[in-house]
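Convert to structure. Protein one:
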Amino acid sequence: MIRVLLLSSFVSALVALSCVPAIFYLESMGRPQNPFHMIQLLACLVCFPCSGFFFWMSRGLGWTATRIFTALACLLSGAWFGFFVYVMVMMAVLGA
């Protein structure tokens, strides 16, 4: 169970990070970035609970590089998701 959580955290974090340069490239070319935004959203939605649950399940193992990575992945994907929710709420409030 812990290995599956760790693997899904690594893969989803890698997918979310690899979408960033693709989004920047497509934005500079003037092309739509919607597919990459959706892939990044789904990757963050997978990364946040998996890394958080792995961090919770391995709490007695001490601070290893793997636990530090999962803590950072959980915090960063949670912050990204929080920013996404903030933007959606602001767009709804402002009527965009």
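Protein two, convert as well:
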Amino acid sequence: MTRLTVLLLPALLLAACGHSPDRNEADAPAPSGASAAITVPGASAYDPRPAALPFRLDVTVSSDVSRALDAAGVKLTVEADYFGKARRGEAPVNLGREERQISVRNQSVTLAGRFDAGQVAREVSGDPQVRVSAGVARSAGPMVYCTQFEEALPIAVETGGFIHCELLSE
């Protein structure tokens, strides 16, 4: 009995290690018989795992910006783009976007930092990133220049971000 166990143990270990998580399921032959599942091209084969890393963003505006935008009755738009470095390829992976309208004054706002942790685990190399910008629609009012904030999202949670806006022309 011991001899049979010693002979079968390596075969069982090899069979158990045969599954690779990087294996492309689309290349696998379809199972035959009535139990074959029909897949829809483009359908999501995973369950999304929502995650959030909220962070603070300090927005400062010059007195000229505040005066000009108040006179025009326009608000400042803050946009946060969440992305990551792709595991394969050069193009960044889009993880979502957040947009907020804020009053024109010096203030701290909290951005949600929402993204799909499952998508990050599958498609992103390293931490998710955030790029935050602010501005005014060109047709809506005066021309405003605002700095940008870009950082790894976990660091943004720890340190917060900063954007400052100046008036370019009325």
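The helical segments are 2-16, 63-72, 117-123, 153-159. Residues 2-16 form the longest helix (15 residues).
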